[in-house]
């Protein structure tokens, strides 16, 4: 059973992307969670745009949950596990539709799976690898979201449809950056 299936077997929302690469599975998964890999200029712009209203409101003296926080990024996710060279998973728990993401801090995979507070959504993002049979490797990512009650489902659904096109673009760019970093790492190794 995959990590993502163990961590979030039930979900209402799912997004999947993949690409083929010549990089080794271990190098791909090692690269997937390196902070600099997720620091894509396009991703940064999209996050700035999403956070802009709350940050401006805070700068004007209003109450802002983002005023003293860095921009959303990979640091917001909790590592949930790694299965050798096959899969790595990270997660979030929160009210993602809120301006400040309404994030609840979780310590580890056990805390993630046991979290049941109403009105909150759980998200797992994984990266997995699979042999393509011709010396290449499939690099895949899947994002799943589970809303544990009607209130969170009602609030998350319009947010999902609003952010999904940008989320898909971010995931595809991330896969490319992971591939490039893993291939660069492989090519720069001494023989």
Keywords:
alpha+beta, single chain, 24% strand, 191 residues, 5 strands
List the secondary-structure elements in sequence, H or E: HEHHEEHEEH
- How many DSSP-defined strands? 5
Radius of gyration: 17 Å
Give the amount of beta strand, in percent: 15-25%
Individual helix count: 5
Tell me what you see in this structure.
The chain has five helices and five strands; from the N terminus they run H-E-H-H-E-E-H-E-E-H. It has helices at about 5, 25-30, 40-60, 110-115, 150-185; strands at about 15-20, 80-85, 85-95, 120-130, 135-145. The chain has a five-stranded antiparallel β-sheet with strand order 1-5-4-3-2. The radius of gyration is 17 Å and the shape is globular. The model has no long low-confidence stretch (mean pLDDT about 90). This is DUF2867 domain-containing protein. It comes from Rhodoferax ferrireducens.
């Amino acid at each position: 059973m995959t990590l993502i299936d163990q961590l979030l077997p039930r979900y209402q929302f799912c997004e999947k992307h993949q690409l083929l690469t010549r990089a080794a599975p271990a190098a791909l998964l090692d690269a997937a969670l390196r902070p600099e890999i997720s620091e894509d200029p396009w991703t940064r712009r999209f996050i700035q745009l999403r956070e802009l209203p709350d940050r401006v409101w805070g700068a004007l003296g209003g109450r802002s949950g983002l005023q003293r926080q860095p921009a959303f990024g990979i640091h917001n996710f909790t590592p949930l596990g790694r299965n050798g060279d096959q899969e790595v998973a990270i997660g979030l728990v929160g009210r993602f539709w809120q301006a400040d993401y309404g994030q609840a801090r979780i310590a580890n995979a056990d805390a993630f799976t046991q979290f049941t507070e109403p009105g909150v959504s759980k998200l797992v993002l994984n990266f997995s690898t699979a042999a393509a049979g011709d010396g290449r490797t499939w690099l895949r990512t899947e994002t799943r979201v589970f809303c544990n009650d009607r209130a969170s489902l009602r609030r998350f659904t319009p947010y999902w449809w609003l952010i999904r096109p940008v989320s898909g673009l971010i995931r595809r760019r991330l896969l490319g950056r992971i591939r490039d970093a893993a291939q660069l790492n492989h090519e720069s190794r001494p023989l």
